[in-house]
Write a structure and sequence with these properties.
Its cofactor is [4Fe-4S] cluster; cob(II)alamin. The active site is at residue 141. This is Epoxyqueuosine reductase. Residues 350-379 are annotated as: Disordered. One of its GO terms (molecular function) is epoxyqueuosine reductase activity. There is one protein chain. By secondary structure, the protein is an alpha+beta fold. It has 2 domains: 1-278, no CATH class; 280-374, no CATH class. 41% of the residues lie in helices and 10% in strands. It contains 15 helices and 10 strands. It has helices spanning 9-22, 36-47, 67-70, 91-96, 112-130, 147-153, 200-204, 222-228, 235-241, 250-253, 280-284, 288-294, 304-318, 323-332, 341-374; strands spanning 27-31, 76-83, 102-103, 136-139, 158-159, 165-166, 174-181, 210-212, 215-216, 244-246. The strands form 4 sheets. The chain has a 4-stranded antiparallel β-sheet, with helices on both faces. The longest helix is centred in the C-terminal third of the chain and has 34 residues, at 341-374. It is elongated, with a radius of gyration of 25 Å. The relative contact order is 0.13. The model has no long low-confidence stretch (mean pLDDT 92).
Length: 379
């Protein structure tokens, strides 16, 4: 085991990157801990209230933008990327079928927090075994960490206009993880920004949540509304949600850089068939025990059964008119919780309107045929 004074840190950093790739990370970069520019941006974002109900975004003061305050002794952050794009490419088709429940790609497999954190811990242990002076702590979206800012400084990618990290080799279909470390490793150079004049993500957003380039108002974002938001979903956004019941991928699906994304090597991230492409009626029929069983080891479980039903009720309201949908909603209403009930009532109102409009349309068609039938042939 070596000491810090005896190690060539440039060569040692190359070893760390090789160990990281062997553990399944597609990119490993090193960032310093000066996030001052990003701290100013975070403060403005919070002052605008764009974090919505996510009080954890401001609860830790400057720890989020000052890694050395979160983990004393930290002088560098190792940023890693792990691709999660599964081989099944039917996502866009599922999004266009209003009778199916659409779940964001990242959430269809095993909980990424567990997968990445375990590998980061292994990487940290590998470094410690080689260098006695090492102290580290892994994070995967589980603490006040500016992961996109760190990834940007570590050369993993640039921050896109949708606020996600983008890479020319991988698009945005990847998870990020961080290893806070006390070693003064040589840092990587940020990559050149690649969005240019493209605004496809801003244009496609169903709720126009990307209020300016690189700025997302979470209060409008479907991912926030279906996952982080604990209350009623504002009516103004319910129709725009369509059949999205957990998260939203629109800004990524439209991004030109995602044409270059590779399929994941991790079978843990492959879609569970019990979740992927299932009908809304099937998903809505689950009781809480079934929900907990089918989402075991999945990031979906953390939203809880109430929010799951709330989201599906909205999606059922947006589904094509079907008596089976109306029956399912009516049967669920008497037993619905205070959170779910208003969304079922809204969904039933949507189907009442659809039935009325359908009846009016058929009546108009009959009148048109009758009038046309009575006209002279040369009219």
């Amino acid at each position: 085991m070596s000491s810090l004074q005896s190690v060539d840190l440039v060569r040692f950093t190359d070893d760390i990157k090789a160990w990281g790739r062997a553990l399944g990370f597609q990119h490993v970069g090193v960032s310093d801990i000066d996030l001052g520019r990003h701290e100013q941006y975070l403060q403005r974002w919070l002052e605008n209230g764009y974090h919505g109900d996510m009080q954890f975004m401001q609860a830790h003061g400057t720890k989020r933008s000052r890694p050395e305050e979160l983990v004393p002794g930290t002088v560098r952050v190792i940023s890693v990327r792990m691709d999660y794009l599964p081989p099944d490419a039917s996502f866009a088709r599922n999004l266009s079928d209003g009778s199916l429940g659409y779940i964001s790609r990242y959430a269809l497999g095993r909980d990424y927090h567990k997968v990445l954190r375990k590998r980061l811990k292994q990487l940290g242990d590998k470094i410690t075994a080689a260098l006695a002076d090492t102290a580290f702590r892994p994070f995967v979206d589980s603490a006040p960490v500016l992961e996109h800012a760190i990834a940007e400084k570590a050369g993993v990618g640039w921050t896109g206009k949708h606020s996600l990290t983008l890479s020319k080799e991988a698009g945005s279909w990847f998870f990020l993880g961080e290893l806070f470390i006390n070693l003064p490793l040589p840092t990587d150079t940020p990559v050149e920004e690649g969005c240019g004049s493209c605004t496809a993500c801003m244009t496609i957003c169903p709720t126009q949540a990307i209020v300016a380039p690189y700025t997302v108002d979470a209060r409008k974002c479907i991912s926030y509304l279906t996952i982080e938001h604990d209350g009623e979903i504002p009516e103004v956004y319910r129709k725009a949600m369509g059949n999205r019941i957990y998260g939203c991928d629109d800004c990524q699906l439209i991004c030109p850089w995602n044409r270059y994304a590779d399929i994941t090597r991790e079978s843990d991230f492959h879609p569970r068939q019990v979740l992927h492409g299932q009908s809304l009626l099937t998903l809505f029929s689950w009781d809480e025990a079934t929900f907990l069983h089918n989402t075991e080891g999945s990031p979906i479980r953390r939203i809880g059964f109430d929010k799951w039903q709330r989201n599906i009720a909205v999606a059922l309201g947006n589904a094509p008119y079907d008596e089976a949908v109306v029956t399912a909603l009516r049967e669920a209403l008497p037993h619905a919780t205070a959170l779910v009930r208003p969304h079922i009532e809204w969904a039933l109102a949507q189907h009442h309107d659809k039935k009325s409009q359908d009846g009016q349309s058929r009546q108009l068609q009959r009148l048109t045929r009758a009038v046309t039938k009575g006209l002279p042939r040369d009219a």
